[in-house]
Amino acid sequence: MTIADVARRASVSRQTVSNVLNSPGLVREETRERVRQAVEELGYRVNQAARRMRTGRSRLLAVRIEQTQDGMNVFDRFLHGLTRSAAKAGYRVILYTADDDRSEIATFDDLLGAYEPDAFVLTSTHYGDVRTSWLAERELAFVTFGRPWGSPEGDAHPWVDVDGAAGTAAATRHLLDAGHRRIGFIGWPEGSGVGDDRRNGWTRALEDAGPTTHPKLEDASLMRRANLQDAGGLERRTDGSAAEGEAAARELIAAGATALVCVSDSVALGALQAGPVPVIGFDDTPVAAAIGLTSLSQPLSDAAARCVRVLTRLLDDDSPDKPDHVLLEPSLVIRRTA
Question: Rounded to whole angstroms, how far apart are CA atoms 282 and 271?
């Protein structure tokens, strides 16, 4: 089978078929689907070596596999969505592992020498992240799944992220609406961009809480300060494990917390062992669904699709003057624990 056979079956030109295979963003969705159907029906297979010589592209996107904690893996859903979206755009995903920024940068170098990926998808962004500057200095295409925490160059590169603060604020408001007035928060160590963002949502919801939180105070500013003062004693930092989540929850319940918002499902799993108080997690893992844990669900498939869309625009020189910055909101999945 040749590209001409596909063109005849789809009733399009050979150039249109080539565009669908090499630059799908140039072709309307309806036409792309018709060509893809013809490709599948005819069993057409692209000669990758010839295409790389012709276009100068490998059609490969590289992404790191994330580690799991307490058997919970959120990244699998993102990776599945990324692979699916990449395939629709005519790309394939290659995976790699790395223990830290230094080893990941070394892996970048190895991959570029062996496979020449067209772009990278970076995950687990953090303060002092040097991976983005390494790629930017070499003018390599990339997008980060996660905001550039504390990076002065953050506005200069594209990113896609989930609004953790919006999520924990929604969780806290849900508990406030249920009548709870002493809501604790179990988070990660200070300095974690994602963890601090999720903590800020809890703080913001308490600050914005209505007068019923402190009925003896008439001044709104005094009520907000009183809310935050109470909150300061109802917060614990952990390493993110279920074991430390349980210990922190016991301390908070002893201090008077009647409900808990947790930075992750792993922490929430431990908190559930501490006592009969409402608990809300974050990430909506399969474990959360299995045990009936109320949790915040991240739109990971959408985030993955946005990452691929950003990269295809960059690679097709169709990117806007300013880099794409996409912030998505999680949704609260209410189950029996809240």
Answer: 13
Q: Where are the alpha helices (DSSP H) in the chain?
A: 3-10, 14-22, 29-42, 48-55, 75-88, 101-114, 131-137, 164-177, 193-207, 220-232, 242-254, 265-271, 286-291, 300-315
Q: Which domains does the chain have, with CATH numbers?
A: 3-157+300-327 (3.40.50.2300), 164-297 (3.40.50.2300)
| Alpha carbons 272 and 260: distance in angstroms, whole number | 9
Q: Going by C-beta distance under 8 Å and a sequence separation of 6 or more, which residues neighbour residue 81?
A: 300, 301, 302, 303, 304, 305
Task: Report pLDDT digits (tens) over 135-188.
Answer: 999 989 999 999 999 866 556 799 999 999 999 999 999 999 999 999 999 999
pLDDT in tens, 234-259: 999 999 999 999 999 999 999 999 99
Map residue 20 onto helix, strand or coil. helix
Q: Mean pLDDT for the chain?
A: 88
